[in-house]
Design a protein that fits this description.
Elements (H helix, E strand, L loop, with lengths): L3 E9 L3 H12 L5 E3 L13 E2 L9 E2 H14 L3 E3 L3 E5 L5 E5 L4 E9 L3 E3 L5 H6 L4 E2 L2 H4 L7 E5 L3 H10 L5 E5 L9 H9 L3 E4 L2 E9 L4 E9 L5 E5 L2 E4 L3 E3 L30 E3 L11 H30 L1
Helix pairs in contact: 1-2, 1-7, 5-6
The protein binds flavin-adenine dinucleotide and NADP nicotinamide-adenine-dinucleotide phosphate (NAP).
Length: about 325
């Protein structure tokens, strides 16, 4: 028999955005249910050191932080379901969602916090060096390369911003791009080209991430000139892949308004989506900041927006009944 779980507020995703939304919603008495997805705890469970989440003087571990957030959400009354949502029906309220497990979820209001994943180049050597010199987040990991040589791969706004950001830590930043012009905005390009600490290598792609030393760490990148095929080595300690992100929004295509990059469109200054009663928070609606603390911040906003939405609905129903 099909199992059905009905709740006033359903949260999709168990990263910092979803868990913060759950903490606020639970404390407001909304008894939220969180569907965790296939990555319980979200992206931070794939990293080690986190130094920029406020409240901790010492370096903390990403998986530990997410365990603590989940424990806090549980403690205040959140119920967790280990499932992945594969279909949504927003055509009527309560909304109806279907999990891979076959469970049907119905809810009066929905908070979407399904996050985004960085795109990687897809090289086995890149996979091997993740956490040992290969990163997809300069704001997160740049600090670990103070005074060292770093490279950024990509030619869009993200890559240029990451290269500029890295100059806070390194005087030797190289941007590697596969073409001879950047797609980043002109103002960012102007800053990049004017910066004495940044050089650009054009017409090049990464052929290999090169490991060395004990313990093993990144020592360089083998670069392929895309015009000639010639390989040359660039010595670097850190390489930041900045070739874009995939927001986890396939599920919502045609059901919610998405922006031109596939992120969920929300009203400025709120987490309201194009469907009344559906709210979005975290990396799935934010292509600019993409930080745990900003995801948590918008998670808080989504819970407050959902709470106000439900209160207004209940008030209307009471008035109609009188
Ligand atoms: P995510 O953390 O991406 O969580 C998404 C959640 O949605 C997951 O639980 C997933 O299982 C779930 N989900 C997806 N699809 C479905 C579905 N269909 N049904 C149900 N659930 C679903 N930020 C920092 O501030 N500091 C750092 O030091 C830092 N380091 C990082 C290191 C790495 C390697 C990476 C990848 C990111 C790092 N970040 C860091 C960025 C930070 O992790 C993200 O900004 C943050 O996790 C975004 O939170 P989120 O809740 O929006 O989404
Ligand atoms: P993007 O604009 O899609 O740029 C991705 C870059 O990576 C491109 O230069 C692309 O090269 C390169 N690339 C893609 N796949 C590659 C591969 N396999 N190997 C090597 N290079 C590869 O992505 P983004 O920079 O993350 O930006 C995404 C969106 O967010 C954009 O709309 C952007 O404007 C926005 N954004 C805005 C800001 C801001 O306003 N400050 C900041 C960040 C992001 P090609 O150019 O050759 O295709």
């Amino acid at each position: 028999m099909t199992k059905t779980i009905s709740t006033r507020l359903l949260v999709l995703g168990s990263g910092p955005a979803g868990l913060t939304a759950a903490i606020y919603a639970a404390r407001a008495g909304m008894s939220p249910v969180v569907v965790q997805g296939i990555q319980p705890g979200g992206q931070l469970t794939t990293t080690t050191d986190v130094e920029n989440y406020p409240g901790f003087r010492d370096v903390i571990q990403g998986p530990w932080l997410m365990e603590e957030m989940q424990a806090q959400a549980e403690h205040v009354g959140t119920r967790f379901e280990w499932d992945h949502i594969s279909d949504v029906d927003f055509s009527q309220r309560p909304f109806r969602l279907t999990g891979d497990s076959g469970t049907i979820y119905t809810c009066d209001t929905l908070v979407i916090a399904t996050g985004a994943q960085a795109k990687w180049l897809g090289l086995p050597s890149e996979e091997h060096m993740k956490g040992k010199g290969a990163s997809a987040c300069a704001t997160c990991d740049g600090f670990f390369y103070r005074g060292k040589k770093v490279a950024v791969i990509g030619g869009g706004n993200t890559a240029v911003e990451e290269a500029l950001y890295l100059t806070n830590h390194s005087h030797d930043v190289t941007l590697i791009h596969r073409r001879d012009s950047l797609r980043a905005e002109k103002i960012l390009q102007d800053r990049l080209f004017a910066h004495p600490g940044i050089k650009v290598i054009w017409h090049s792609e990464v052929a290999e991430f090169v490991a060395g030393g004990t313990p093993e760490a990144l020592v360089g990148l083998d670069l392929r000139d895309v015009r000639t095929g010639a390989i040359s080595r660039l010595e670097v300690d850190g390489a930041f892949v900045a070739i874009g992100h995939h927001p986890a929004t396939e599920l919502f295509t045609g059901k919610l308004d998405l922006d031109s990059d596939g992120y969920i469109a929300v009203e400025t200054g709120s987490t309201r989506t194009s469907v009344e009663g559906v709210f979005a928070c975290g990396d799935v609606m934010d292509k600019l900041y993409r930080q745990a603390v900003t995801a948590a911040g918008t998670g808080c906003m989504a819970a407050l927006d959902a709470e106000r939405f439900l209160a207004a609905q209940e008030f209307e129903q009471l008035q109609a009944a009188e």
